[in-house]
Amino acid sequence: MIYAYLRNKGDIFYKKRGHRLYKQAQLSLHRKPQKARIREEFGDLLSPKSINKSWAMDFFSEVIIEPTQQWVRIINIVDECSRKGLRGGPSKMASSSNSMVHSEENA
């Protein structure tokens, strides 16, 4: 209420001044409640029990400067059970998941 009165009157209203005036008038300031944070409990990751059940895929990008500046993007696919690399090499910038699966089946 003091805030609206001072604004309508044309006074400059600062946060600290408003806090002081509210305390002098023994009013309580409306404070915005904080959002409740969601705390998730993450369980341990289960490792696969047999080969070819789960793969991990990662892209690595690098810039080659000499002789011409080029972007190289490399895909790494690793079997999570045996930790054996299934594929590693240059990849197309825009390749669909179907073409990725097809290239893995042919490899």
Give an account of the 3D structure.
The protein is of the alpha+beta class. Among the domains are: 1-29, no CATH class; 49-93, no CATH class. The chain is 26% helix and 24% strand. It contains 3 helices and 3 strands; from the N terminus they run ααβββα. It has helices at residues 2-9, 15-24, 97-106, and strands at residues 55-64, 70-79, 85-90. It has a 3-stranded antiparallel sheet with strand order 1-2-3, with no helix packed on it. The chain is elongated. The relative contact order is 0.11. The model has no long low-confidence stretch (mean pLDDT 76).
SSE topology string: HHEEEH
Write down the overall geometry. elongated
- Average pLDDT figure: 76
**For this entry, what is the oligomeric state of its chains?**
single chain
Strand residue percentage: 15-25%
Largest pleated sheet: 3 strands, antiparallel
Which strand order do you get reading across the main beta sheet? Answer: 1-2-3
Contiguous low-pLDDT stretches (5 residues minimum) are none
Structural class estimated from helices and strands:
alpha+beta
Work out the helix count. 3
Strands, total number: 3
Instruction: Report Rg.
Output: 30 Å
In percent, how helical is the residue content? 25-40%
* First-residue to last-residue Cα separation: 73 Å
